[in-house]
Design brief:
With 209 residues, this protein is mainly α. Helix content is 74%, strand content 0%. This is Probable Ni/Fe-hydrogenase 2 b-type cytochrome subunit.
Length: 209
């Protein structure tokens, strides 16, 4: 409800949001779908970073990532079909091929979301941890681009008013991210979130025998 309400909020802005991103029927659903996509992709992103930090000595989580990729593929495909379908149904394709600043942003956003689908469909790429990480980053950037566009970049409040976060607001946002990282480090040190490397090595040696 929270995520779909964010999309509903911008419906009230009407024509102040660029037509490529304004959708009176689909904006709440798009907001919800991008939240799902970002939520699942951040798991792959974070898990890949942990594996890289452990230099391959941690627990192999590729099976978990594959299951997440199956779910993500459905959400990604649904979002893209509805996204392009809404543009075609509402006759907005002229804006998409205008080749101005906003149309370029749209194609960048679309490319970032289409690329992971290609990665997930290829067996070779699915078994490549590096490509999984790149695919997760691409999804995060694609969804973030869509959210930034409909709420900030493609939003024109009128009357010569323009908004960009002040340095104080940016520092607050960075501070929240830093707090989350510190909390994560503290939790994995205090709780058995990441399996002990010693136990993993024992299991690997036992399997070899």
């Amino acid at each position: 409800m929270h995520q779909s309400s964010m999309g509903s909020l911008m419906i009230a802005a009407g024509n102040k949001v660029h037509p490529i991103w304004q959708s009176y029927e689909m904006l709440p659903l798009f907001s919800l779908l991008t939240a799902f996509i970002m939520g699942f992709s951040i798991v792959i992103f974070e898990g890949s970073l942990v594996q890289a930090g452990l230099r391959g000595k941690g627990q192999n989580e590729k099976d978990l990532f594959r299951k997440l990729m199956t779910i993500l593929s459905v959400f990604l495909a649904l979002f893209l079909v509805l996204r392009f379908g809404e543009l075609i149904f509402r006759g907005k394709m002229g804006y998409v091929f205008a080749f101005d600043f906003y149309s370029i942003l749209f194609w960048v956003e679309s490319a970032l979301l289409i690329f992971p689908l290609v990665v997930f469909r290829s067996r070779k790429f699915r078994n490549d941890s590096r490509m999984l990480f790149i695919g997760a980053v691409s999804m995060l950037l694609g969804c973030a681009t869509w959210r930034m566009c409909y709420s900030l970049v493609a939003f024109n409040p009128g009357g010569g008013y323009h908004y960009f976060p002040t340095w104080e607001e940016l520092l607050i946002s960075i501070g929240f991210v830093a707090i989350e990282i510190c909390a994560y480090i503290l939790l994995i040190r205090l709780l058995p979130i990441i399996p002990s490397l010693r136990n993993i090595n024992k299991n690997q040696e036992a399997s070899k025998v």
